[in-house]
Specification:
Helix content is 30%, strand content 28%. With 330 residues, the chain is of the alpha/beta class. The chain folds into 2 domains: 144 residues, Quinone Oxidoreductase, Chain A, domain 1 (Alpha-Beta Complex), CATH 3.90.180; 141 residues, NAD(P)-binding Rossmann-like Domain (Rossmann fold), CATH 3.40.50. Strands 3, 4, 5, 6, 7, 14 and 15 form a 7-stranded mixed sheet that branches. Helix 1 crosses helix 10, helix 2 packs across helix 3 and helix 2 packs across helix 8. The protein is globular, with a radius of gyration of 20 Å. It starts with a strand and ends with a strand.
Length: 330
């Protein structure tokens, strides 16, 4: 038997709770299967949507949510993972079309996993989670396109969220001057502790703006979308780079081509769900090297499996910041 959060929909009636399941309930993976004894999962925006039934994230029922997991391999038919090793899951439809990490057991395709890199603990891996791994993919995209600490300021939108928090932590550690955008005045001290050198009100970016605005930023990490992303692009300096990885404000992009054809601005889409394995391994290796362990601990809270519902509601209400690790065995 193992404990898991189980989401069900029967006759359009949604239900969610902690359930006792049998190992035989785990999904069958035809080839290259890996079974994990899960230590921790984490709470991401997509998990909160699933747990609160606020969006059609779940596409198969019943579902064990959780897009992240870290745990010890107990069985493996995958050549890359032997019994006793520690593996990390991020994305690949876990918690949406495949049973995910908010459980004490998981059965997964080994191609979805990366080894836990040296220098990180299992708890730290889930404090980073998909949010931090996505932030690292954004940093890599900035670097790949010539943005370094000497070329100018980096704007981070949605700064108090998971992606934003880890992005600030990484960029500051790497020597960038970070400008954080948030609407939560109570998080200013927290963001400065992470390394933000300036904080601007998200309201300055959230409304419709001119297609070209005063040039300021060399790069952007945006997890908000909509008018915020459009205004960020309009404020990027010549040949600057904008990385887009989220839609907290909306999926729309009410922008002009002007920044791209008159200033040579690059808009780079960053996907964490289906990113190829080589990119994932590179991101996790850089996270192990570049993360500030003390600051990571300061922005992380740990809760038990049954507390996930309250934490998800807080995230959806906008009263949550930082990273939440879920101890599935507590």
């Amino acid at each position: 038997m193992f404990r898991a959060i189980l989401l069900s929909r029967i006759n359009d009636q949604f239900s969610a709770g902690v359930a006792e399941l049998e190992d035989s309930d785990l999904p069958v993976i035809a080839t290259r299967a890996v079974k994990l004894s899960v230590e921790y999962s984490s709470l991401n925006y997509k998990d909160a949507l699933a747990l609160t039934n606020r969006s059609p994230v779940v596409r198969k029922w019943p579902m064990v949510p959780g897009i992240d997991a870290v745990g010890t391999v107990t069985e493996s038919s995958h050549p890359g993972f032997s019994v006793g090793t520690t593996a990390v899951l991020n994305g690949w439809g876990a918690g949406e079309i495949h049973w995910g990490g908010l459980a004490q057991r998981a059965c997964l395709d080994g191609d979805w996993l990366v080894p836990l890199p040296e220098g990180l603990t299992s708890l730290e891996a889930m404090a980073i989670g998909t949010a931090g791994y996505t932030a690292m993919l954004c940093v890599l995209a900035l670097e790949d396109n010539g943005v370094n600490p000497g070329v100018g300021e980096i704007l981070v939108t949605g700064a108090s969220g998971g992606v934003g928090s880890i992005a600030i932590l990484l960029l500051a550690r790497l020597g960038y001057r970070v400008v954080a955008s948030t609407g939560k005045s109570e998080t200013h001290a927290y963001l400065k502790e992470l390394g933000a050198q300036e904080i601007i009100d998200r309201a300055t970016l959230a409304a419709p703006g001119k297609p070209l605005q005063k040039e300021r930023f060399a790069g952007v990490v945006d997890s908000v979308g909509s008018h915020t992303l459009a205004n960020a692009c309009a404020q990027v300096r010549y040949a600057g780079v904008v990385t887009a990885c989220g839609l907290a404000q909306g999926m729309d992009f009410p922008a002009s081509v002007a920044p791209f054809i008159l200033r040579g601005v690059k808009l780079i889409g960053v996907d964490s769900v289906m990113a190829p394995i080589a990119r994932r391994v590179s991101a996790w290796q850089r996270l192990a090297r570049d993360i500030d362990h003390r600051c990571l601990a300061s922005l992380t809270q740990k809760i038990g499996l049954g507390e996930s519902f309250g934490a998800a509601a807080a995230l959806m209400a906008g009263t949550h910041h930082g990273r939440t690790v879920i101890d599935v065995n507590a």
